[in-house]
Design a protein that fits this description.
- The protein is α/β, with parallel strands linked by helices.
- About 45% of the residues lie in helices and about 20% in strands.
- About 5% of the residues have low confidence.
- The protein has two domains: about 120 residues, 3-Layer(aba) Sandwich (Rossmann fold); about 260 residues, Alpha-Beta Barrel (TIM Barrel).
- Helix 2 links the parallel strand 3 and strand 4.
- Bound molecules: ligand C2E and magnesium ion (MG) (2 copies).
- The site of ligand C2E has 24 residues, from strand 7, helix 6, strand 9, strand 10 and strand 11.
- Ligand C2E binds next to strand 7, helix 6, strand 9, strand 10 and strand 11.
């Protein structure tokens, strides 16, 4: 493995190069940041960048690495406050660079032991996946066939009452296994959006979800809600409310049992058609949820103007609720604001009992996440429900 360290502090770079050499790692140091502009990055697997450097600083280096499409790992170091480092991490992700670690100076050398083996393990996986995976064009053709053959599955993830731990409903999530290999929904949903496949895909998901849902609710003690995700393209389709209404009628399903989850970034495209479609859906009785709340930019505006009934807090906030004071404050404020606006609040991405407890204490009443259950195939939902009813402690 080859490391590159860019830092104007010569004493630090000398020390660092020597320390990693003892671990058998070759590290080159650049103390003049503009030298990166002429440096051959061909063999460099990991770059560690100091943020504060005179002339050409760490943020400009990140932009340069984005422009040259550097695909190795990047760690960022600085003596600045944690929030500055966090912003640099965010910037890496926005530039679609492979962010690795934040190193607040002075850092403990034990970090090196962590960094280097982790680097070796993680490097090989993405390369072998991308080599085997079909290109987008092939993928679109296969997706179109899969939709026609109804070969897209629906998995269900429960929504849980954080106080009683009862199941309040299930979210339907599309699943596609191409020749047995899992394709992420983010990937194939965005392809379906680009290639006008979304209306057919959504109808397929609704059909399959309703069939399973009705089987589940045959048991009289079940009275679950069903959540279905909608995509941007659909909100531009004026006849969407009628199509959905007919579909539900076909299954004799009341609209108010269905929550339509709409991702916030989608809502940002403030088109009159989208608002009209949303309002008609609400008039028909559908519940409307803002999904991934907080991940976009004008969430509060949507709350003021849209006909929503629920808000789902983006899992990025939940993930750091125990780590970052800021996340905790943001989540608490969102819960309070939504409650005062008369909306139900769901926290997504709960992975630990501690997160569930904290959210409950913040008056968030519903949660979803791997701590309760990962999305599961319809065939295992009943089995999971009996396990859940027997085993789960209340708050
Ligand atoms: P989403 O609607 O926000 O769904 C939640 C995502 O978070 C799901 O990813 C779920 O598997 C994942 N998740 C749930 N709990 C946890 C947790 O505790 N930890 C972590 N790390 N992840 C958790 P999935 O299934 O990969 O779906 C990704 C996105 O793709 C969905 O985000 C939704 O926007 C979209 N999507 C999925 N199915 C459909 C669909 O049928 N139609 C449309 N339009 N979009 C869909
Ligand atoms: Mg959702
Ligand atoms: Mg979400």
């Amino acid at each position: 493995m080859t490391l590159l360290l860019i830092d104007d502090d010569k004493d630090f770079t000398d020390f660092f190069v020597e320390a990693v050499a003892e671990l058998g790692v070759t590290c080159t140091a650049l103390t003049k940041s503009t030298d990166i502009l002429h440096y051959d990055l061909g063999n460099t697997e990991h770059i560690i960048i100091d943020l504060s450097m005179p002339g050409f600083d760490g943020l400009q280096i990140l932009r340069f690495l984005k422009d040259v499409k550097y695909d190795g790992y990047i760690s960022v170091t600085s003596g600045q406050t944690h929030s500055v480092l966090e912003s640099a991490k965010e910037l890496c992700q926005l530039h679609q660079l492979n962010f690795h670690t934040l190193l607040r100076k002075p850092f403990d050398l034990s970090f090196l032991n962590k960094l280097i083996p982790a680097q070796r393990e993680s490097k090989s996986t993405p390369i072998c996946i991308s080599a085997k995976f079909p290109c987008d064009q092939t993928l679109v053709k296969r997706l179109s066939i899969a939709i026609k053959q109804q070969a897209i599955d629906v998995y269900f993830q429960p929504k849980i009452n954080l106080k009683t731990r009862e199941v309040t409903g299930f979210e339907a999530l599309a699943r596609w296994f191409l020749d047995g290999v899992f394709v992420s929904p983010e990937k194939f949903i965005s392809l379906a959006e680009k290639h006008q496949l979304m209306p057919d895909l959504t109808l397929l998901i609704i059909d399959k979800s309703l069939k399973h849902y009705l089987l589940l609710n045959q048991d009289k003690k079940n009275n679950f809600g069903l959540a279905i995700n909608l995509s941007s393209t659909e909100l531009k389709q004026e006849n969407l409310p009628d199509i959905l209404f007919k579909k539900l009628h076909q299954y004799n399903m009341p609209c108010d049992k269905v929550t339509l989850e709409i991702t916030e970034t989608v809502l940002l495209e403030k088109k009159p058609t989208s608002l009209e479609v949303l309002t008609r859906l609400r008039l028909m009785g559908f519940k409307l949820s803002i999904d991934d709340f907080g991940s976009g930019y004008s969430s509060v505006n949507m709350l003021q103007n849209g006909p929503f009934t629920e808000l789902k807090i983006d899992r990025a906030f939940i993930k750091s609720i125990n780590i970052k004071k800021q996340s905790k404050i943001i989540v608490k404020s969102i819960v309070d604001m939504a409650t005062q606006l008369g909306l139900s609040v769901v926290s997504e991405g709960i992975e630990t009992p501690e997160e569930a407890r904290q959210l409950f204490e913040m008056n968030c009443h519903t949660g979803q996440g791997y701590f309760f259950s990962k999305p599961m195939p319809a065939s295992t939902v009943n089995e999971w429900l009996s396990y859940w009813r027997d085993e789960m402690p209340t708050q």
